[in-house]
Task: inverse folding
């Protein structure tokens, strides 16, 4: 089984493909933006990486979302829900967690099947 790593920097890769599955590293937005703006930036990055490596949001398998404060949950979900393709929702986990940069309000990691 072939394993491909992309955009490695010596510590991590932006993407890894194995056995027909694309794994993306955690994506963050612009520190200091509100949660909605950070979500839009993150989802744009995810779209670009999915497309670059042979997938799209219709092929999402799972998502893990780390949110700085759970009181931002509804605002985060509004952007997430608008981005998803109806009927193509991945399994998802959402956890309240502090980031190494407290101005990064949300981080998302996804996996997707290749097209």
Result:
């Amino acid at each position: 089984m072939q394993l491909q790593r992309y955009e490695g920097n010596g510590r991590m890769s932006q993407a890894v493909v194995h056995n027909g599955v694309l794994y993306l590293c955690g994506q963050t937005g612009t520190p200091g933006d509100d949660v909605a703006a950070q979500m839009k930036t993150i989802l744009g990055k995810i779209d670009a990486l999915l497309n670059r490596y042979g997938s799209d949001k219709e092929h999402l398998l799972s998502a893990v979302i780390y949110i700085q404060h759970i009181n931002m949950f509804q605002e985060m979900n509004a952007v997430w829900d608008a981005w998803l393709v109806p009927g193509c929702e991945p399994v998802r986990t959402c956890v309240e967690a502090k980031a190494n940069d407290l101005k990064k309000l949300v981080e998302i990691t996804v996996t997707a099947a290749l097209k």
Notes: The CA atoms of residues 6 and 50 lie 12 Å apart.
